[in-house]
Amino acid sequence: MNLAGSRVVLVLCEYPTLNGGERSLLAALPSLIQAGFRTKVAAPATGPLSEELARQGIEHVSFSSRDSAGVNIERDQARANLRQLLIQTKPALLHANSLSMGRLSGPVATELSLPSIAHLRDIVGLSAAAVADLNRHTRLIAVSEATRAFHIAQGVSAEKTTVLHNGVDLQLFRPRERLGGNLALRPKLDWPADALVAGTIGQIILRKGQDVLARAAARLARDEDVSKLHWIIVGQRHSSKPETVAYEQTIERTFAEAGLCHRVAFMVACSDVPTLLGEFDMLVHPARQEPLGRVLLEAAGAGLPIVATAVGGTREILTEDSAVLVPPDDEAVLADAMRRLATTPSLRVNLGKAARQRAEQHFDARLSGERLAAIYRAVLDTVL
Hints:
Blueprint: E1 8-12, H1 20-34, E2 38-43, H2 48-56, E3 59-62, H3 75-89, E4 93-96, H4 99-111, E5 116-120, H5 128-134, E6 139-142, H6 145-153, E7 161-163, H7 176-179, H8 185-188, E8 196-201, H9 210-220, E9 229-234, H10 242-257, E10 264-267, H11 273-279, E11 282-285, H12 294-301, E12 306-309, H13 314-317, E13 324-326, H14 331-343, H15 345-362, H16 365-381
Parallel strand pairs: 1-2, 1-4, 2-3, 4-5, 5-6, 6-7, 8-9, 8-11, 9-10, 11-12, 12-13
Helix pairs in contact: 1-16, 3-4, 4-5, 9-10, 9-14, 12-15
């Protein structure tokens, strides 16, 4: 490919949704544009991501590794489709925005002698073939030191892999008193105006640990000192596997059997996360595994007190001084942490301020975008 003078980057996205990886990409785009990169996004033709790209005026190229029924296309055919797309769009650089797209695109980028980057946003076991596909890229980006270490232990190239923490828009995610809005969710849910709201946001899946949160809430059900505590569970179950369906049912049943139906609300999704976080009095993140939880970055930006499990990249976001960190799979400790925050307003205030300060110092989207632009430049400088 002719790269002379080109600053076009094609970002390859797997899903049509707006989850953590997509939101992290969108948060970095202003800095990339300011750095002179023209970014195109290859993603499924329709869905929340395509709508947001259109709203922001970002060029969208239709590409999907799945057929119209949502079934994965045979890998060789998906790679042939991607090869044709790359020949047509002629980018200077390919950025695969997920591990799966990194594996798909590695051999194609090598065949076309196209500089490429794959983003490692997940902590998952890989086959030797998957590792080899990823190692074909010019550079690999891990979202945390924990993610980098995990993949290097599997054989991913240490030399090629650098860490880039995600960032958030700190003008968009800011403390409740700066949002300027009223607390509207409590009356809609028929909850008292002085209800204390503990919220969690994440896909309904075992690794997010909502079942642990449900059991912890059940422990507090008859505790008069926290009778004002209510819970909001935000997330969707994408898998139709029987074990995942049963997992979701277990969460709902645990709240019901504890007599908490009037104190819990389940929300499938939320299009306005900053406003929703403004409704929370604390964020609870009971994940069993977490490469670098975007909701933790957003909650920190919102100045919320946070209870989170000390797993994966979470300790790179939060310290003992800026959150209550608990072990995974321990509902007793999680219940005690929620109780402490619910009964100690000063602790909530202090932790919220400390979390916001962490976000300002380390996780501003402008800084993350500038660092991503620097990686783009470094990769292109090796081939130009």
